[in-house]
Design goal:
Blueprint (H helix, E strand, L loop, with lengths): L1 H21 L1 H35 L3 H7 L13 H10 L3 H11 L5 H11 L4 H12 L3 H26 L19 H36 L1 H11 L1 H11 L1 H14 L1 H12 L7 H4 L1
Length: 285
């Protein structure tokens, strides 16, 4: 079975390489569209927040945030683990997951606690949902706020159910996480965040190429199915396609896209969690 899976994956990779070679001009155009999306929407709404989140975690502000907003206690986590959850709600994908990984690398969390925290902290932020999805795609900031609020509430409920009922774990009695080092380094924050944003944009460009090649054919079969496919693959493109459909159907598909967040965002989070050996089974649930 393992050998068969490997053959299938390699065959798909080879087929994709052939498509890129034969239709190289189209592939370049789709890649440019992804780069344009990164330059106009993703980097402006993500990079500054990544810098701030890096300085918050490295500066030892977890205790302060945990005292005023002890949301991590909902999931049985130490109170001070609230900082990555707060940053996830404020900054959007994948800042919360990256902040959780930073705490784990500092030795402040156990492996299980880090995995729980990632599942709770990986959320959309108001900057992108309200200004881009609501304001640009749907021409309604009000809809953007409704969408963001619904996603925030559903995230709270889903993360609580997953980590309390589906994958319960032994919780520590200690109420704090102990960050080993508190050192705000602006230069390190900027360079590390720039590297992280490039990683995020790399996945967005890659999925933009897949999106461009596959969507026209799926749209011919069923526009609704194309919207579902878009939402599963890449949530920004999915929301844009949903806005083009319009009406109640478009708003529903947009909610689906934001709620799942897309395979692209999941891969972005894996880029930070996989090198640390952290599982995302809780996030998938």
């Amino acid at each position: 079975m393992k050998r068969l899976s490997r053959i299938i994956i390699l065959s798909l990779i080879f087929a994709f390489a052939v498509v890129l070679t034969v239709f190289s001009e189209r592939a370049s155009g789709y890649a440019r569209e992804g780069l344009s999306l990164c330059a106009t929407c993703i980097i402006p709404s993500l990079f500054p927040y990544m810098v701030i989140s890096h300085m918050i975690i490295s500066g030892g502000a977890c205790s302060f945030i945990g005292k005023i907003l002890p949301i991590a206690r909902l999931y049985g986590l130490p109170r001070d683990a609230s900082a990555p959850i707060f940053l996830g709600y404020l900054c959007g994908f994948p800042v919360g997951a990256k902040a959780a990984c930073e705490l784990y690398k500092k030795g402040a969390l156990t492996k299980t606690e880090a995995e729980v925290l990632i599942s709770a902290a990986n959320n959309t932020g108001p900057s992108f949902v309200v200004s881009v999805i609501g304001g640009v795609f749907f021409k309604s900031a009000v809809f953007g706020w409704i969408l963001y609020s619904a996603q925030l509430l559903s995230s709270l409920i889903a993360a609580t159910v997953v980590n309390r009922l589906i994958f319960p774990y032994k919780r520590r009695n200690d109420n704090t996480v102990r960050v080993c080092e508190s050192n705000i380094n602006f230069f390190s924050a900027v360079s590390d965040s720039a590297s992280s944003v490039i990683t995020v944009c790399g996945f967005i460009v890659f999925f933009s190429v897949i999106f461009g090649f596959t969507l026209p054919y799926i749209t011919e079969i069923s526009p609704t199915f194309a919207g579902i496919f878009s939402s599963i693959l890449e949530f920004t493109g999915g929301c844009e396609y949903a806005a083009a459909l319009g009406g109640a159907k478009g708003r529903f598909l947009c909610g689906l896209a934001v709620g799942w967040s897309g395979l692209s965002v999941f891969c972005q989070s894996c880029a930070f969690t996989a090198p640390l050996g952290l599982s995302q089974k809780r996030t998938l649930c």
